[in-house]
Backbone:
C-alpha cells in the first residue's frame, strides 16, 4: 500500500481554515491568498474550495481558476506535494503547457490525472494528414477519459455563472439535470431554454415540485409543452404554477380529471372550487 501523505497546514493558511473561523473571515482569506508565498497561496485556496459555505467555496474556486503559472509551478515542484491538490491543478489548469509538464514530472500525481493529461496532449497534436477518422476516434476516447477523471458535477462546482449559463443552454441531459438545481435563477432558467430539453424532462420537473417560480413561468409560456395533457395536469397540481395558468389548464381537462380535482384535498382550494364549478356547468 502506498504511504499516505499528510497535508501540512502552515500557520498563515491555518488562520483562515481552522475550526471556528467564520465565513466572512474565510472570504478575507481568499483575498489575502494573493499576498502569501506561492505554494501557500495554492494550498489556502484549495482548502477553501472545500468549505461548507457555497459563497466561500465559489470565491475560492474562481481564485484558483485564475491562478497564474508561477504559484502553481512553485507548488507542483515542492519536494512533497499532496496528490489531491495536484489532481485539482490538473483538472483546472490542463491547458497550461508549463504546468502540465511539471505535473507529469511529479511522482505524486495520481495515475488517473497522469493519463488524463497525456491523453489531452495526444489530442492537441495535429493528426497525420488523411487520417481524420482516426483523429476523431482518438478525440472521442480522450473525451471519455476526461469525463471519468473530471466529473460534470465537479466541473459545475468550479464554473463561473457565465460558463454555467452557456452549458445550461447547450449541454446534454446530464448537464441539464445538474444545472436545473443551481441556486442562481439565471442558470436554472437557462436549462429550460435549452433546445435539447424534452417534454419528458419537463414533466418530471413539474411533478417533482419545482420551487423556482421563474422555471414555472418559462414552462407555462411554452405553447408546445402545454399542449401535452400530462404536463397540463402536472401544472394544475403544482402549487407553484401561477393561478391564472392553472385555472386555464384545468378547463381543458376531461370530466374525469376535473371530478377528481373537485374532491381532492391535495391541491389548492382555488383549484378544487373551480373544478366543482366546471362540473356544475357541464351538468346544466
Residues:
Amino acid at each position: 500500500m502506498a504511504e499516505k501523505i499528510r497535508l501540512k497546514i502552515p500557520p498563515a493558511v491555518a488562520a483562515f481554515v481552522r475550526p471556528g473561523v467564520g465565513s466572512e473571515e474565510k472570504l478575507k482569506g481568499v483575498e489575502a491568498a494573493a499576498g502569501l508565498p506561492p505554494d501557500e497561496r495554492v494550498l489556502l485556496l484549495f482548502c477553501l474550495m472545500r468549505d461548507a459555505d457555497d459563497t466561500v467555496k465559489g470565491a475560492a474556486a474562481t481564485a484558483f481558476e485564475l491562478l497564474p503559472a508561477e504559484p502553481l509551478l512553485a507548488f507542483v515542484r515542492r519536494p512533497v506535494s499532496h496528490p489531491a491538490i495536484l489532481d485539482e491543478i490538473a483538472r483546472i489548469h490542463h491547458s497550461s503547457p508549463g504546468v502540465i509538464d511539471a505535473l507529469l514530472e511529479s511522482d505524486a500525481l495520481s495515475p488517473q490525472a497522469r493519463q488524463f493529461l497525456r491523453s489531452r496532449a495526444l489530442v492537441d497534436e495535429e493528426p497525420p494528414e488523411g487520417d481524420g477518422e482516426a483523429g476523431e476516434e482518438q478525440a472521442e476516447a480522450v473525451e471519455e477519459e476526461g469525463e471519468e477523471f473530471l466529473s460534470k458535477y465537479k466541473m459545475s462546482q468550479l464554473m463561473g455563472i457565465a460558463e454555467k449559463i452557456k452549458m445550461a443552454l447547450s449541454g446534454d441531459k446530464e448537464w441539464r439535470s445538474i444545472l436545473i438545481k443551481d441556486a442562481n435563477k439565471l442558470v436554472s432558467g437557462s436549462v429550460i431554454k435549452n433546445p435539447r430539453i424534452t417534454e419528458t424532462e419537463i414533466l418530471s420537473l413539474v411533478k417533482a415540485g419545482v420551487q423556482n417560480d421563474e422555471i414555472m413561468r418559462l414552462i407555462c409560456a411554452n405553447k408546445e409543452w402545454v399542449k401535452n395533457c400530462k404536463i397540463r395536469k402536472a401544472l394544475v397540481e403544482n402549487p407553484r404554477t401561477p393561478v391564472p395558468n392553472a385555472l386555464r389548464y384545468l378547463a381543458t381537462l376531461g370530466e374525469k380529471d376535473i371530478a377528481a380535482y373537485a374532491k381532492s384535498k391535495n391541491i389548492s382550494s382555488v383549484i378544487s372550487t373551480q373544478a366543482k364549478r366546471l362540473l356544475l356547468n357541464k351538468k346544466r
Notes: The CA atoms of residues 91 and 120 lie 11 Å apart. DSSP finds 19 helices and no strands in the chain. The mean pLDDT is 83. The first helix runs from residue 11 to 17.
